## 1
Amino acid sequence: MSVQCIPYSSPRSAFVEAIERDGCVIVSDFTNDSTLEEARKEVQPYLDTQDTNSTVGALNGGTKTCTRLVGRSKTVREKFFSDPVYQDMVRHFLNRTTTNWMGDDAETNTCPPLLSIGITMDTRPGSAAQRLHRDDKNHHARHVAAEKYAPDRDMLFGMFVPGCDTFRANGATRIVPGSHLWGDDKPDFSTPSGGKFGKVVDAELKKGEAFMMLGSLYHGAGEYSMKDGNRMVHIMFCCSGSYRQEEISYLSYPVEDVKQYSDVVQERLGWRQSEPNLGWVDLKSPEFLLA
Ligand SMILES: O=C(O)CCC(=O)C(=O)O
Ligand SMILES: [Fe+2]
């Protein structure tokens, strides 16, 4: 199975069909060199403050990051994250519409998606391959094996916008097309002719393309095997908006007050990261802000 590359101007249905079939799609003509250069300039100061040894979160060492990306890069925010094709896919796969009974009245409402993470990952020499994983593991999403895609199956939808061509030697993301339809048993990436990783393909991208995928797709950064250079990727994921608290505790309870609360209350208000990698600030459990 391979991944389809679809021109930006194609009808939305072409993207939906590709994503439902493969779990992902490459969008060609998504952006251009000058826009990528603007984005690079905006994140570079943040990357420059970092060492490359971090192993927090999903990091394997050899990777610099710019967290809080949607706030820090106007270009990522307005050109990539706000892109109409990306946002239409986000709405298509993550909107939750339900009809509920209020006494005798049927009320139908749609809950729009939310940004879950925006981060630039700048991978450099010394970065090992990530283990193949599903990003929705962070949300403890569960999956029933299926032949065909069904609405509301996913709660996470992401886009990767590389700042350079990506290929095997600079750690192009390894993906397993079709794995979004797998269940939660131990994954089998093998094929009779291709060996243990026969179902895994490199999502090699040209500068200017974008890669979109469902949160249930098995994938992982490849090994950065070159001696120099870097692979910059702007990554953004939205989750279904129903994955949030009813009362926004972070805006309702001032940090100075939360510092006085007991551990259990701090945890219920969301001030402790859960594993794996859910609810952090700058890749660290937010308790450091309460110190
Ligand atoms: O850098 C990449 O290509 C993928 C990164 C990734 O999958 C992750 O950090 O969860
Ligand atoms: Fe991932």
## 2
Amino acid sequence: MTAATESSTGPGEQAVDMRTSLASFQLPNPVLTASGCAAAGRELGQFFDVAELGGVVTKSIMLKPRSGRPTPRMAETPSGMLNSIGLQGPGIDSFIANDLAWLKQAGARSVVSIAGHNTEEFVNLAKRLYNHPIDLLEVNISCPNVESRGQVFACDPTASARVISAVRRAANPNVPIFAKLSPDVTDIGLIARSVADAGADGISLINTLLGLVIDLDTMRPALGGVTGGLSGPAIRPVAIRCVWQVHQAVPHLPLLGMGGIKTGADALQFILAGASAVSVGTAIFNDPHAPVRILAELQAELAARGFASVTEAVGFAHRAVAEQEEFFASRKLGVGA
Ligand SMILES: Cc1cc2nc3c(=O)[nH]c(=O)nc-3n(C[C@H](O)[C@H](O)[C@H](O)COP(=O)(O)O)c2cc1C
């Protein structure tokens, strides 16, 4: 076991096996960063060893360098924040040469997030990454489709499926692909089933919710981009509801859950709702150590409830009460522990 998989148990608590998997990607523990909240991991390297995490999810990368949306790009909201960064970034070539190379030499597991304006751009990104050492491809379909009057791919089951099946065909078959879903839909289970049928190996959820803040001094939208993405603890119940519904819709697919995770107890809610691993985003902005702290807290939360491994807890909240009781009764008798 590495340092990250050993349990920080207290007196009387059992060790917890923190290993998990996201399709064929084996992780020593279930805590990753969230796309866009830790660039490509280098900034976090000054606070802790990024190889201790389950993985680093990079900011969504596009084909060409982009400067993002107009300023101001951040507004405070109750228990959260609104951002309109846009997909600012160096473009795929620089990303591969600098960021991916850095992650590799740091010994981190790399989850690369890609974003495109149309299906062809997603395909080209998958092809560019084909021969590079990545552990998982997260396909950010929560961005506007220029071929459909700017409608977000993830809000349309057909457009979502088209991108995912094209990326699945173009990407290295040894690399699992996860579709990242938007919560801004009526039926997230429908979108989940359509990306599953299109060949997604798993699902990441949720991206930010679309929001707007009016600045009362200027009496105009506070963000230069007018609307922005709402993140942080304010969205957590929405995110857990989405994980719950998607787990029910596609129980065979692994889920990477996120949205407002600030503590190990928050992370545990996602796991019990059906996530095999979690990403930490906004919490990093006021506590750069948040991912490693949350990992230690999650281990303690699992141990305190008698779980011997994180995988035992995945989707546990969906089980019938009698089945849950039977699980813990067998544990007390030492069965399966
Ligand atoms: C500043 C900022 C930038 C983000 N950029 C991306 C991005 O490039 N790609 C993406 O898929 N999600 C992006 N997200 C969404 C996060 O990855 C995450 O899904 C969302 O913020 C919910 O998690 P949180 O509440 O822990 O931040 C961004 C979020 C924030 C706050």
